[in-house]
Amino acid sequence: MIQAVLEIVRLRLAYFANFWNCFDIINLILYIAVIYLGIRLFLMTEQQLKQIVPVPTNRQFYYVNLHPLANAHDTFTEAMAVMLIVAWIKTMKYISFNKTMTQLTATLERSAKDIGGFSVMFFIFFLAYAQFGFLAFGTQIAEYSSLYNAVFALLRTILGDFDFNALESADRILGPLFFLTYVFFVFFILLNMFLAIINDSYTEVKSELSRQPNDIEMIDIAAGYWQSLLRKLRLKKKDTTPEDNDCERFRDALLAEGFSEDEIAEAFIKYDISGRKLELDDMQMVERALFMQKGKVHEELRKQEQTTRDTNILNHRVSHLEESLFRMCDRIETIISAVKRMDEAITRTNRNDDIVRAETALRARIPNSS
């Protein structure tokens, strides 16, 4: 739960772009809900037991309402059942790391868009026939007495559970016509188109996966670790065949070069060189793969270090730029204040000049009048 919260904080909405991440959140919510419902059921049980024991002595019959407790137990059981289904489906996330395990998920992902668009057409036909059956046979056949019952009656018809005699008895014309057209359009055409979409997607996925290099299978990894464990515990006898001697000498040489036992075991399993005579090309191929793998690790570490250095430099430059902007803003405010003071001084000077000119003009008119 803590890891999921940290990932959401770091990635925000991008976290929910992955289907399995959304599945993890759903599983986490169900897990918390089951814990809450379990605690609630326990507290309600304790409360009901306090009401039952001891039984009041002044009453011959004593009634305790157990319906809330039964409802709480049913809710807890149903929530736990849903959580278990989600948890079992979640195991697909951890076993789908090679071609065999990814065919199902890749097929569903590839066909999801087409199935979603085609489902609209399917449900239009399906609901149309459900309403037709409800209106035409609802008063005579119990299976079509409501729209809800009609929907499930048509679903059972797809599975082969239907009562044709009841339809024919209700209406000798509409009954057989309804049944035949429904089976033709929904079962023979629409349902088979669903299967065709999934089959095409599966064919494309299988063709793409067949062109990819073979990954290490789960059984190969388990067998490799088991053989390594037996060798470490000295429970497996070493054969004296030249092929095994070549493998052991090559393994010792790789260990001397600094590769781990697990890396060597995975490389041997991947290139299938255990238990046979090694050629120079085989040794060079394995050694090149191990060096490339180690080089990729070093390259990733170097890129991470370079990214960290670039980030620190960028942060320093941004901080310096912010300081420069703050100083520039202070200077601009100082200049604006000085301009305002100069403008006020000029305004006062102009006002004084106007007063002086007015007084001078007034004095010049007074002697002329006299």
What order do the helices and strands come in, and which of them pair?
Elements: H1 2-11, H2 19-52, H3 67-95, H4 99-137, H5 147-158, H6 164-170, H7 174-210, H8 218-232, H9 242-256, H10 261-271, H11 280-369
Helix pairs in contact: 2-3, 4-5, 4-7, 6-7, 8-10, 10-11
GO molecular function, one term: calcium channel activity
Binding site for Ca(2+): 272, 282
Transmembrane segments: 76-95, 115-135, 173-198
Number of domains: 3
What would the principal axes of the Cα set say about the shape? extended
Determine the strand fraction and express it as a percent band: under 5%
Q: Taking Cα atoms only, what radius of gyration do you get, to the nearest Å? A: 41 Å
Number of helices: 11
The CATH architecture term of the largest domain is Orthogonal Bundle
What is the structural class?
Answer: mainly alpha
Give the total of beta strands. Answer: 0
Keywords: Calcium, Calcium channel, Calcium transport, Cell membrane, Cell projection, Coiled coil, Disulfide bond, Glycoprotein, Ion channel, Ion transport, Membrane, Metal-binding, Transmembrane, Transmembrane helix, Transport
Pfam family, one: PKD_channel
Binding site for Ca(2+): 272, 282
Protein name: Polycystin-2
Describe the structure concisely for a colleague.
By secondary structure, the chain is mainly α. The chain contains 11 helices and no strands.
